[in-house]
Amino acid sequence: MEIHIDGDFDQEFEDEKVESQEIDLENFSNIDAKTYVANVTVQVGADFHISTHDINPERMKISVAEQTLFIREQKPHYPHNHQKKIYICKAEYKMTITVPQTAVLNEVRINDFSGRLNLSDLNMQKLDVRANAGSLKLQDVTIQNDTKIRLDAGNLDIYQCKMNSNANLAAGSVKIKGLQGKNHFQLAAGSLKTLDDRDDQTDYDLSTTLGSIYFHGSRMGKHFYKHEGSANQLTAISSVGSIKIQ
């Protein structure tokens, strides 16, 4: 078996040519991104702009058409020979997308293989994220309509967000603070933890198969339901991990 982790223990290997870019963009209201290893941040900035760090421009295709920012990252090329060698990467591939404070995004779709995704201070209509082995962090994000999240092996962090979401995690954990709206979480082998005040007005419908549910320090067993008649609703189903409302 050959292990290629993009780097060099052997002088026969050379690092992939990398280069940083700064690109001013036309105005856009949608983002359609397919990334492989880049860590992607979408945040508020002075204008519509994108910067990349240590990414080969030939491997990253960026364009704006019909009000949509298209991003297509090709799989990195790791040189190798027939011997069993380990190739370690010294570079961290990063991409930062900025939109003006007044911009409202219509739809953001990101399909990621193994990078970290970070969205902050954004206002959008729809969000659709699919990640194979990457993580997702949402900070101060407002989403008016549907939010779909699927993570196969990464963690999900949500802080001070307003949205109505449906999230599925195969092997990652969820951390939540200050989440408003109607949100559903399905976890196969992960845990869910919220950090909210005891007086928080939220409806809860929580259940586990092999884990336990804790509500402000009290163990509630395998199922817990609390109805406040609130506009905020948290539904969580965990097959293996625990659920903690703190």
From TrEMBL:
It holds the Pfam family DUF4097. Residues 59-213 form the DUF4097 domain. This is DUF4097 domain-containing protein. It comes from Lactobacillus melliventris. The lineage of its organism: Bacteria, Bacillati, Bacillota, Bacilli, Lactobacillales.
